[in-house]
């Protein structure tokens, strides 16, 4: 049995933007892959939507595909736009808010023992 779960077909090039449908005045998400070492999730936020402050026990990477958002990491604001990547360190409070309709990829990197 494989330790990998995925919702994507193998050996096929797919447009990230087409893999998720934004929710009007809301947030949509789709897990693209998940393993014991982490997971990859695609998010779509309508303008003004976001995630409230929280922490995670592992590093995460945010990559903006379209739109714009502001991440607050450890109290510091970071603007993210298409083509940028932002690392959120483990155990540091973080939040985000989309200023325009935004699609982003979240890669969570779990440490394995």
SSE map:
Layout lengths: L4 E2 L20 E9 L2 E8 L4 E5 L4 E8 L2 E5 L2 E5 L4 E4 L5 E5 L3 E8 L4
Antiparallel strand pairs: 1-2, 2-3, 3-10, 4-9, 5-8, 5-10, 6-7, 6-9
Structure characterization notes:
The chain is mostly beta strands. It has one domain: Jelly Rolls, CATH 2.60.120. It has no helices and ten strands. The protein has strands at 5-6, 27-35, 38-45, 50-54, 59-66, 69-73, 76-80, 85-88, 94-98, 102-109. The strands form two sheets. Strands 1-2-3-10-5-8 form a six-stranded antiparallel sheet, with no helix packed on it. A four-stranded antiparallel sheet has the order 4-9-6-7, with no helix packed on it. The two termini are 20 Å apart.
Q: What is the number of helical segments per DSSP (H or I, 4+ residues)? A: 0
CATH-assigned fold name: Jelly Rolls
Global geometry:
globular
Low-confidence stretches: none
Kindly report the name of the CATH homologous superfamily. Answer: Jelly Rolls
Structural class: mainly beta
* Element order: H for helix, E for strand: EEEEEEEEEE
């Amino acid at each position: 049995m494989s330790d990998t779960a995925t919702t994507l077909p193998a050996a096929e090039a797919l447009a990230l933007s087409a893999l998720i449908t934004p929710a009007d005045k809301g947030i949509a998400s789709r897990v693209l892959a998940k393993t014991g070492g982490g997971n990859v999730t695609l998010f779509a936020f309508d303008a003004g939507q976001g995630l409230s402050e929280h922490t995670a026990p592992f590093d995460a990477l945010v990559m903006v595909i379209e739109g714009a958002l502001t991440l607050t990491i450890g109290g510091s604001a970071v603007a993210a736009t298409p083509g940028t990547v932002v690392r959120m360190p483990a155990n540091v409070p973080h939040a985000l808010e989309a200023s325009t309709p935004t699609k982003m990829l979240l890669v969570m990197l779990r440490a394995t023992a």
